[in-house]
Amino acid sequence: MTTSLPPDISQSLLQRFNSVRQRSVDYCAPLHPEDCNLQAMPETSPAKWHLAHTAWFFETFLLKPYLRNYQPFHDRFEYLFNSYYNGVGSQYPRAQRGLLSRPTLDEVLHYRLHVDQSMTTLLSQVDHPARQDIIRRTELGVHHEYQHQELFFTDIKYNLACNPLAPQYRHHEGLMPSVESADAIRWETFSAGLISMGNDAHNGFVFDNETPVHKRFLAPFELASRPVCNAEVLAFIHDGGYRTPSLWLADGWAKVQQEQWQHPLYWQQHDDHWKVFTLHGLAPLNPADTAVHLSAYEADAIARWLGARLPDEAEWELAAQSLPVQGHFLSGTGLLQPGRADATPLSQMFGSVWEWTASSYAPYPGYRAAAGALGEYNGKFMCNQLVLRGGSCVSDPEQLRPSYRNFFYPPDRWQFSGLRLARDGDSI
């Protein structure tokens, strides 16, 4: 986690800190207290836990070490809301977070207020001897909260989807299917060559897993003009894609058999019609919309069926380097579901859906994790996961850039994940 610092950013950082912290509370406003304690599977966390853990982060890594005479809100919260930082201490079991009826939601909100007031005091100390470290850690904490805001939406969606009543998180107009079809895929061509990838934070914050900048040689390749849409997934289903082992990686086919996958997560067939669960409730499936909630195994099989492949993350980054971070985001229309890709070249590279790549989540050449507990943020997860790029409809654009690396396990599909096709340049 690195950032280059202008001479005095305490005030602007405090404003951004307050804005991001308030947003997390606002996102919980449509929920009832009962909703905030749901945990439908071990991989999700209750909304209340996200609120508490993000406060824990600032308390643990900033207030306790740097604010003189700071009084922790509760002496057991360090244990309850530690996610995975072994350097801090032991953690309450992740799969049992939904059992924590206490502290109540109201107590967690008071905890956040206690932390926020103390952070205001700390950030106002412009002559603090550890000011540079305080600013860096606060910047990291803000971006950490962006990540948990996105996890809030992915987790509450999964938790609500388990309810047969198909409850809405929030009402939204405009979910009826369009008569329009998705634009045909066009192919953007990229020449072979040596490229630079990664980010050394010369112009702002980056996570440590984006560093250091390094060289990669790429063979010629092509990238699809838009992500795969629902119509293409429907065609894959109708052609027996979920029943054809030759399309699947071995682990993927084993998962299909084990879980009896027959369609993407949240799809439901009602007679001859498909519907999909969204954060706005159950809605008709729009074939032209961008496909979402696909595992890496499904993405790889669909790409193979379409005569293509998943991109390498270096290919994706090269294509995105010249593009602005614009797209369908959380801060846009309020629609918490990816829509239809437009006709512009390389549309939806940012926003709408995280795009699976074929790249293992591994350290870049020369990578070194930071010392101490904060070094556990990214480095220790560089094993058995794949990289996703680009952000989603529940991402905040402030957290994204062409070098941003998200990562999940190949079977995971409760995230807002989809795919963009790639193919070798000599396949034309």
Core attributes:
alpha+beta; paralog of FGE (formylglycine-generating enzyme); 30% helix; three-stranded antiparallel beta sheet; 428 residues
What this model shows, in words?
The protein is of the alpha+beta class and 428 residues long. The protein folds into two domains: 10-161; 187-427, paralog of FGE (formylglycine-generating enzyme) (Alpha-Beta Complex), CATH 3.90.1580.10. It is 30% helix and 12% strand. The protein is built from nine helices and twelve strands. It has a four-stranded mixed sheet. The longest helix has 31 residues, at 131-161. The mean pLDDT is 94.
Mean pLDDT: 94
Strand order of the largest sheet: 10-9-8-11
General shape:
globular
Named CATH topology of the largest domain: paralog of FGE (formylglycine-generating enzyme)
The CATH superfamily of the largest domain turns out to be paralog of FGE (formylglycine-generating enzyme)
CATH architecture of the largest domain: Alpha-Beta Complex
Number of domains: 2
Count of strand segments: 12
Figure out the total of helices. 9
Radius of gyration of CA atoms, rounded to a whole number? 22 Å
Distance between the termini: 41 Å
Spell the H/E element sequence.
HHHHHEEEEHHEEEHHEEEEE
